[in-house]
Amino acid sequence: MAPDSAADGAEPAPGGTRRPDRLDTQVLVVGAGPVGLMLAAELARGGVDVVVVERRKGPSTESRASTLHARTMEILDARELLPDVGTPPNEPRGHFGGLPLDLTLPGPHPGQWKVPQTRTEAVLEEWALSLGVDIRCGHELAAAGEVGDHVEAEAVGRDGVLRLRARYLVACDGEDSTVRRLTGAGFPGHDAVRELLRADVEGIDVPDRRFQRLERGLAVAWRNDRGVTRVMAHEFGSTARPRTSAPSFEEVATVWKRVTGEDISGGTPLWVNSFGDASRQLASYRHGRILFAGDAAHRQMPIGGQALNLGLQDAFNLGWKLALTVRGQAPESLLDTYHEERHAVGRRVLADIEAQALLLLGGPEAEPLRALLGELVALEEVRDHLAGMISGLDVRYPVPGPAHPLLGARLPHTAVRTGGRELTTAELLRPRGGLLLVLGGTGVRLPGGWADRVTAVAGEVGPGSPTGETGALLVRPDGHVAWAGRTEDGLAEALERWFGPARN
Ligand SMILES: Cc1cc2nc3c(=O)[nH]c(=O)nc-3n(C[C@H](O)[C@H](O)[C@H](O)COP(=O)(O)OP(=O)(O)OC[C@H]3O[C@@H](n4cnc5c(N)ncnc54)[C@H](O)[C@@H]3O)c2cc1C
After folding, report:
1. pTM higher than the cut 0.85
2. Confidence class of residue 1 from pLDDT cuts 50, 70 and 90?
3. CA–CA distance, 399 with 404 (Å, rounded to integer)
4. Which of 330, 417, 438, 446 lies at a 20 to 30 A Cα distance from 297?
């Protein structure tokens, strides 16, 4: 992320004149965390002007989420970003509330991928900048509201107030969202009841522990290849303390000692943090011209990277819809499907995280439930179900249309022979817009008037392909199937619903 001086709206420009402290754009994104960056890039890719305001002056160095799940890897693949991510370590084994769970499911990126959040953010930021996104760091949003057919906002920077005017504002400003406060958006749920204390510590030597339940509490420890040990501890029966700042390292070391008997107080803490089992979700992800995504829309205990992956997938769902709306190609009602689809997914993930929090932080009273679940996860069907949910691969949106096994689901990975080449479904999703994938020589054609928003590709798949060998699939830019058929029945209606009316 560029330092704030280069991006400051009131900096003197070459020649001595001051740049304007007023900025008009099509979409204002608040927050350059992973979700804001993903959204901004998707909007820019959709042909929309985007300004991002970010209160941090430089990149985040916080050691937060470290897991990308299979669906997020597919999304990054569909945008050709995997080479930038590199070759992260892959761990097939994850957990459900601390119970070991094999996360591998059929697909090109099975299991979980260990990518530090700072790396994910760097990749997304570089992508957003390459697409022309204007990121203004060192600017803290302080006011925002809808005025007529626009949103007006103010961001405070080092040299004063930057006034912004946009057709839409998307709040990606994290768990303590300023926009949520300013709009008074309802955020039902509950505050933290229990918490885990955490520290990244140098100079200690404790055994690695993977969700070890001891007599007095839960302990987790692992040492990375730089010799830094992350410790996490919860003392059974303890309650979350109301906090306005991070706990002290002394507090972490004291709880660690009580739970494990080990003394880590002589180590050097690099990062100390606590997180609780709070669970809240906005009643509505859309408030007119103001929308919410990521942690600004839902608060959850950060277990197994699900919060980060959920947020990135919010952005992936919203980006193309908002781009089509802003460009006047699709009706405003398309934005309502963002709330309908992502609120339901968020509700399910939050419930899954709450169940995991009970299993993880519950004391001895949780043991019978853990034992029973331990037996259940050994059943293949149960494992598949939980792995599908955690990986994000089983998300299926309530897309209207004749029943089809893939309707609303993501286009599964397969190889498609087309035009003398073999392409993966991720590669087919790389061009901007939707995809009409016509398989097996059915006579389905793209009706006139949508070629500016949808690309038709005819091809063949091998026997046993999860797409089925014949038929046509209309796929949205986020990779979800919006229509499926062997004739053109219902295709024009689906095109209009998801891509706006035909234009000749
Ligand atoms: C301390 C901490 C530790 C975490 N640890 C883990 C973990 O171990 N595992 C895990 O899975 N998840 C973890 N998470 C959750 C994970 O990091 C988040 O789910 C993820 O970062 C969500 O991305 P986001 O873009 O929605 O929000 P954020 O990453 O929080 O980004 C929001 C951005 O908005 C900016 N911002 C806020 N207010 C304003 C404003 N008024 N004006 C301008 N900019 C503003 C912030 O500076 C920030 O850059 C952790 C979160 C936190 C806060």
Report:
1. yes
2. low
3. 11
4. 330
